[in-house]
Amino acid sequence: MKLQKLTSVFLAGAMAASLAACGGSQPAETTAAPAAEAPAAEAPAAEAPAGDVDYSALEAVELIGADSTGKGAAGQIFGELVTSKVDEITGGQLTIDYHPNGDLGGDADLLRQEQSGDIDIVVCQTAPVVSFIPEVAVFDLPMVFAKYSGDQIDAVLNSKDSKFNQQLSAAYEAAGYHLLGFLQNATYRLTTSNKELNDLASFKELKIRTMENNNHMAFWSGIGASPTPLAWAEVYISLQNGTIDAEENAADTCVGANFQEVQKYLACTNHILYANQISINKDKFESLDPAYQAALEQAVSEAIAEMRPQLEQIDADSKKTLEDGGMTIIEYDSAFFDEVLALDPVKELYTKIDSDVNGLGTTLQEELAAQ
After folding, report:
1. Based on the domain organization, do 112 and 94 belong to the same domain?
2. Is residue 161 assigned to a domain?
3. What's the CA gap between 366 and 364, in Å, rounded?
4. Structurally, how many domains does the chain consist of?
5. 370: which DSSP letter?
6. Whole-prediction pTM
7. Domain extent for 213
8. pLDDT by residue (tens digit) across 219-251?
9. Closest CA to 171 of 198, 139, 193
10. What tens digit of pLDDT does each residue of 138-185 get?
11. Is residue 3 part of a domain?
């Protein structure tokens, strides 16, 4: 069934619902949408085909898209906004039958189906993509984005002139995917803790729950903490009873899980960028008429520009909610990040990841520094 055009009322309602949670309840581990829609920035249109396009002269095409985020999550709203814009741009000639919230499977299932061509478009965070495109592990470089603005990061991730974008896009193509873009605005995974983390020494022997990701775990071990992979459903009770001291997640995920009830501090470690990627099966993209290709890329570009201010507002509102709930926010200056990045284990991890991603980490750092 073709998805109808989103309305602003639907968006605002979905965003508000995403932050409603009962005490101690455990929503999906994902970044949720804001409590209210932030004013949208004027979205610059992507480069369109030369001349007016008569889409009605083209054969109608329906794509299948999906995500596995929680209800009302930013990834869902992003995918559905792209869906709405594609429909509007092409007058209903190119449409996306969009299935959110794991309707067609988890992230790994969706990416596998996308690769095989059973579905066409997938929106998800970067971590699960690594299993299919090893170069995406470049996003595991700890704190690599921490000192940059959303605009600087966007220029490196999404600009067609960016060497990083070109190299990563080539890796997507080699694996059978076509990269359409990244949604981010310099918001990050943060650390909640019952231990005051004012300096690097404070992290020594900190029992912190992490995702089961070898690079993430190596980072925490490298700064002296004790990383502990744990099922998401067990995190709240484990923080409550002291089995673990801390966990790391985006601020709005912490709000959705009510961690302000069982954690004293929110440390803005900014160690991993929160980003959603959107991609399409390579063969499907190449089979589309060039006018449809341009329309899809325009829709993604406009949706990213429209949602980026919302992501910033999500982060600010969520931090305030956690603070109002009794948590103390700890901010760090550039000297803290420099101190962490100067540690030998962290430098060794950078070298390992850069090798794993065929030098893409070096390209990323060089292009960020040039912004």
Report:
1. yes
2. yes
3. 6
4. 2
5. T
6. 0.85
7. 188-273+320-369
8. 999 999 999 999 889 999 999 999 999 999 999
9. 139
10. 999 999 999 999 999 999 999 999 999 999 999 999 999 999 999 999
11. no
